[in-house]
Amino acid sequence: MLIDLLIKKDKRKLQQCTEQFQHRQQLRHAFLFLSGQRCKQFLGSAPGLTLSFGAGMLMQLRHNPAVKTLRSLGAIQWLRRLV
Hints:
mainly alpha
């Protein structure tokens, strides 16, 4: 009898945990969906297109010696600010 009560109590607790997990998963999926929608909306806007174009141009120039020099100088200044 005591064992049956403990088993029922554990089953209820497991069921509650399962329901909480499912609810959190639904919230997580909704959040990820909304985040994806916001990203798509931003990338379709003028600032998003500008940012995307600029990032694409920088990626093409990443092997350019001038860009490498500027990046290294920026890193040196950033490290100096830390110290």
